[in-house]
Specification:
Strand order of the largest sheet: 1-2-10-7-12-5-4-3
Number of strands: 14
Number of helices: 8
Structural class: alpha+beta
Shape: globular
């Protein structure tokens, strides 16, 4: 493990919106990562989600494969995701379970896969409660502060059709954590950036998350991100980086094995699939033209998932 990176801590309960938005701006420019405290989602609910997650991943493989990922939701076994292009890299040492809202058009287009109620009676209600809490209490408020940080109207992401409280997805992740017998560094999640707007991460406190603040530098310098009990680790995704013309950084990160099993829960606050992401006028000029062409969110996700997920079919 390397040096521990001291990330900014943002208190979501602060009534000082403008000053908090400026702290968020600085964090997104400097790191692309920050801690979010006093966010309103109870520690008790976060613990219940981790408990149900452990039960789900403890099911026999054949029971889990009944929920196998179809498109964007469902169960993904070990090595299904692969961010490295090396022919010798077999995939990330992690298993995942992804779900989203069951409501509205998106819930019909992308149905969730759930364990049978007789196997895990509390799993679905716990996960649905968590989704609703995070989106209702944290998601909209945090995106409003991000908009203010960009000198935009607080409801900007709603105005442009980006914020849709049914578009987010939650991913439960289990990292087995075994160390390579040869002494080689092993990754539960190989180096990558997230695809969407912002990610809210809760963990069980086991170490392993690392960030690389300069993805163009060789050799890459990796710094450890410690957990703060009850806090979310928040990071900027690729589409937010595109909106801001690179001002806000979609920072490369990974999870390395530390010889101990690790569980985490990531909420990807993604834009509505039909939202077109294009450079904000305030983030470009004659001397700093748009670095990225406009892209529809659905098309961007399809391209990235096709490159990284063995089980991705593009049909859900």
């Amino acid at each position: 493990m390397g040096t521990v990176l001291k990330l900014p801590i943002i208190d979501l309960s602060s009534p000082e919106k403008l000053s908090i938005s400026q702290l968020i701006r600085q964090a997104c420019v400097d790191h692309g990562f920050f801690y979010l405290t006093n966010h309103g989602v109870s520690e008790e609910l976060m613990e219940r989600v981790l408990t149900e997650s452990k039960k789900l991943f403890s099911l026999p493989l054949d029971e889990k494969m009944v929920m196998a990922r179809r498109g964007s939701r469902g169960y993904s076994p070990l090595y299904d995701e692969k961010h490295e292009s090396s022919a010798t890299y077999k995939g990330d040492s992690k298993e995942m379970f992804t779900f989203g809202s069951s409501e509205g058009v998106l819930g019909q287009l992308y149905p969730n896969e759930w364990p049978l109620e007789e196997l895990l009676p509390l799993c679905r209600p716990t996960m649905e409660c968590y989704y609703k809490n995070v989106m209702d209490i944290v998601g909209k408020k945090l995106l409003g502060l991000v908009a203010l940080a960009l000198n935009l109207e607080e409801n900007f992401f709603e105005q442009v059709g980006a914020f849709n409280d049914q578009a987010a997805v939650v991913r439960l992740i289990r990292y087995p954590g075994e160390l390579d017998s040869s002494g080689e560094e092993t990754c539960g999640a190989s180096a990558h950036s997230d695809f969407g707007m912002i990610t809210l991460l809760a963990t069980d406190g086991v170490a392993g998350l690392q960030v690389c603040r300069d993805k163009d530098k060789e050799p890459k310098v990796w710094e450890d991100v410690a957990g703060i009990k009850g806090a979310f680790v928040v990071n900027i995704g690729d589409l937010m980086e595109r909106w801001t013309n690179g001002l806000f950084r979609s920072t490369m990160h990974r999870v390395v094995s530390v010889g101990k099993e690790r569980y985490s829960v990531a909420v990807f606050v993604d834009p509505d699939p039909n939202c077109v992401v294009k450079c904000l006028e305030s983030c470009c000029s004659e001397t700093s033209p748009p670095r990225f062409p406009p892209v529809r969110a659905k098309d961007y996700f399809h391209e990235r998932f096709s490159q990284t997920l063995a089980s991705y079919s593009g049909s859900g």
